[in-house]
Amino acid sequence: MTKHWKENRSLLLFAAPALILYTVFKLYPAIVGLYYSMTDWNGLNKEYSFIGVGNFVQIIGDENYWKSILFTCKYVAVMLLAANLTALTLAVVIEGRRRGKGFFRTLFYMPNMISMIIGGFMWNFIFTKVLYALADNYGMKFFDRSWVGDPQNAFAAIILVSVWGITGYLMIIYMAGLQGIPVHLKESAALDGANAWQNFTRITLPLIRPSLTICVFWTLNAAFQVFDVIFSLTGGGPGRQTQSVAMNIYEEAFTGNIRYGYATAKSTILFLIVFLLTLIQLRVMKKKEEEM
Amino acid sequence: MNHFGKMKKMLHPLSTILLLLFAFFWMFPLLMALMNSFKTNGELLTNVMTFPERIGLDNYIRTIEKMHYLRSFCNTLVLAVLSVSMMILFSAMAGWRLCRTKTKLSAVLFGFFVFSMLIPFNSVMIPLYKVILALNIKNSLIGLSFVYAGMGVSMAIFLYHGFTKGIPLELEEAAAIDGSSRIRTFFRIVLPMLKPITATICITNVLWVWNDFLLPLITLSKNTKYTLLLSTNTLFGQYSSDWSAILSALILSAIPVLVFYALFQKQILKGITEGAVKG
To answer: B125 touching A, CB under 8 A?
Structure first.
């Protein structure tokens, strides 16, 4: 008993700095947020009071919020497919090479190093200046349209830049998965007359399932919180047409309205959605893995 | 040669072309930004697809002043170094003891740290802002580095905890028998052995803090405290049509991370697979 106590005391001493910072800056805000979401706290008045589910009732009728949720869901769905397909294709093609592996890996990962604020501004230049120049001076008429000013084009632009920014990371994970596949499996399949496509769907894909799980999970998580790339590319515009949930919450809390309580209620809902999706996804992925 | 080998040969040039096309697309924004960052606004107006008439640093000199580059750079550096130092020291201490202590409390504490990795930043952002106001650390780089440390310890503890499992206990025991205190053992014996995972944690988190935008955006409102990204963002807003200023600012902000990438590429790429497999 005394030995346990001694060990625990030592543990607490060593864990204390981390524990304190973690509690103050992560856990406490997460928990107390639930309370704030039921208050009318704002940046204008010092006093605020408990209003129960008032904020949540109001959110039901908040058109901009649901639009931003819908937009984010659309973004997540397209990103899951587009980013993972691009990353997997690049990984397979690069892994299949004998030379230049390192070079291509380095190059494709590069956008991940740069903040999407910087990357987004660079693409902003491409969309607002370079593409027009291509259309005017080189006759590429396809490019002659408003890329960030039209909702549909802006969505495409956001996807394009996001894929550019995230693919390198996913690609590295897929490449690690591909490297774990024993060469003799593919060779014997080829001897048995399997073509490249069969080889890919029957051997590669099942064997890289762990990488797939990680990548899907990661994309889902990152895409649901998307902020930087939209902030720097369209600012949520035109109007609020490309506003993500994170931007909607930011706008509610820190620009204009400064309605903290109401914005916290919005972020609580976002948390529940992400949490639920994560649970469902882990379940599904686990089931699939067990089936194999 | 078997069927498989033949097909591989056939696909080879095709894959090279595909990769080169992708590579060109991938580098396009960076190259366009770089090329045009040397031009005057007049040149930029006529054609963005041509090489600059001369490679001069006028734009860069102008931009360095406009965005207070040196100051912003130092602010970002201070923030990253302080945050990551604390994260590493505190997480290594906690992760090591959590792994070595086999009590119920230890298991509970570990779960307590790890569970919050599921909470997205957006959903704690506003209450966190309130905590920052209450502690009076808005516009304080040192204060903000505590916030980053607090948000980053979970993942780091998780990694240290896992890594400690793989290092033999004998050395620590021998040190204890020799009368070395726990603290001494930690700094003299354990910390050096944790080095490989420390490198990974350090690199990953330096990049996180360096490239993070939203948290500084809401907590640093004084421009003397601005990070590189905040300065760039402000410049973008102020000189919205002055592309020669903006592009040179973008290149200037990208340079530190690209240098970092050139120096630590191997560890960065290794860190992704390590973090991803364990996370």
So the answer is: yes
